[in-house]
Amino acid sequence: MAEIIQRDGTWTFDGETVRIVPGRDKGVGLVRQTLGELALPLSALAGVSFEPGRKAGRLRLRLREGADPLLQATGGKLADSSDPYRLSVDSDRFGVAEYFVDEVRGALLLDEIPSGPVDAYLLPGPAVPLSASAGDGTASFDGERIRLEWNWKTEEAKRSAGTRTLAIGDVTAVEWQPAVGLENGCLRFTVSGAPTKVPPKYDPNAIELWGFKKDGLMGLVAAAVVARLPHPSTPPGARAAAAPRAAASAVEPPEAGPAAPGDDPDALLRRLRELGELHRAGVLTDEEFTTAKQALLKRLQ
Q1: What's the pTM?
Q2: Which of 129, 207, 214, 202 is nearest to 161 (CA)?
Q3: Residue 234 has what DSSP assignment?
């Protein structure tokens, strides 16, 4: 058995499984804290390495392509502090790190584990239910349905359409992009029958991200959904059979009723025009557009 304990976390290998427990150091990111303990079967590993430095080194696990929904969803774009497969090692523990590497490499060779891609996920992905708030909304996932709720920073047309609920069977792809420089990021769901045609700011199936601390948590929501979609190696025909369409996506309309004192008729009319633009662009279905429009018209009465 090999074990290395650091402020960054603890890695243990028993010959079959690498167990990763995040540390409590302030440098450990929210993503790792939220993920909690991970158990990686030897069959999911493609390799392990140790990179020594002057004051500290780094242990790094390399997973087989397609083995982990988190890596599939985030595409290697997680920040170092959020990456669960990296461990910072103090200089007085370099020998322990090298021993850990030797033990894992020896087991990979002994068990003749291939380093190539796999055709099924070998890790379960983040546990559900899961919820994260960042950017212009909150994304929640219970294993069957995705719920997108908007906040005061959401663009008016998107907020006017109300809370968005997507059935997992209707989702064909998930995109998570962190904000880079002046470019905002997003968590976007591609839904069958409603191809994306607008930027995340206006897309009711997307949350726009601005590069703040909690953006990485949206990557966990993406990974939890990806874990329940057909594996990327699945042929398109079999993919359709593996993920039959569930109930149609639903939009919860804004609360209906007489116009509140703060409702500006001009603002409501602008929202109606914006909803019409989203409908013409194919972002909103006929039913979703009608529901949202009726809710706004009631507030004008």
Answers
A1: 0.79
A2: 202
A3: S
